[in-house]
Amino acid sequence: MTDEEKLQRIYAAASELFIQPGYHETQMQMIAQRAQMAVGTLYRLFSGKEALLDYVFLTTLPTTVDRLQTFPLQPVDPRELVRRTEAAYAGWNHQLAGQLSTDFDQLLTALFTAFKRYARYFLILEHNPTVNPALTALYRQQRQEIYQRVGEFFQRQRPNLADPQRNGVIVVDLVFWWCAHKRYDSFETEMARNDDEQMLVVVREMLRRSYQ
User: What residues does 73 pair with on adjacent strands?
Assistant: First the structure.
């Protein structure tokens, strides 16, 4: 197994364990066991749990992760992590702004795509708000920005809709719940993953019919 393949396994295992049971409750031994590798291998790639958490955050962002990496990976400068996160959110908001003049189906595509990418990242912050207060604050701001953008879409595209802002909140929260909570933070996580794409199709069709 290549180091890249090991990193992918570690990312999947760590990100899910940082959601449940949580960052502080998760030990490196637990991550190694979930990723099906030796603890020594994990410590060869990461200096510790803090470096692993930073890796999970950076890997989620739609920005280039440095490929010329020296192992074991070390924690990232907090200012750099915030800078990259701000840049990623700015790109997302720019995309959403461009969706205001499109149809509802394209807006849904943008929301489903983004929330599937950020699902575990956001859930880690929701379950561990003090693990990185700066990123938690940025996440709160970004949620409000998304609510606002989708509400603006309804104001423009559905002028007869009562309370477009609340409709925006409901659509955003519904998409996020199915992309994130149902997949990684519910009693039926295994069922949700096995039937994932089919369920998202149903949710999407339900929303489409609701706002025709």
Answer: 46
C-alpha distances in angstroms, 69 versus 46, 49, 87? 11, 17, 22
pLDDT at 36 over 80: yes
DSSP 8-class letter at 64: P
Name beta bridge partners: 46.
73
* pLDDT tens digits along 74-106: 999 999 999 999 999 999 999 888 888 889 999
CA atoms of 110 and 105, how far apart (whole Å): 9
Element (H, E) at 73: none
- Both tokens of 177, joined, read 């719940």
What lies within 8 Å, CB to CB, of 211 at 6+ separation is: 104, 154, 158, 161, 167
CB 3 within 8 A of CB 35: no
CA max distance for the chain:
61
Q: What are phi and psi of 46, to 5 degrees?
A: -135, 140
Task: DSSP letter for 20, please.
Answer: I
Give dist(CA 156, CA 141) in Å, integer.
23
Structure tokens that stand for 125 in this block = 């912050």
Of 200 and 130, the structure prediction assigns the larger pLDDT to 130
With a threshold of 0.85, does the pTM exceed it?
yes
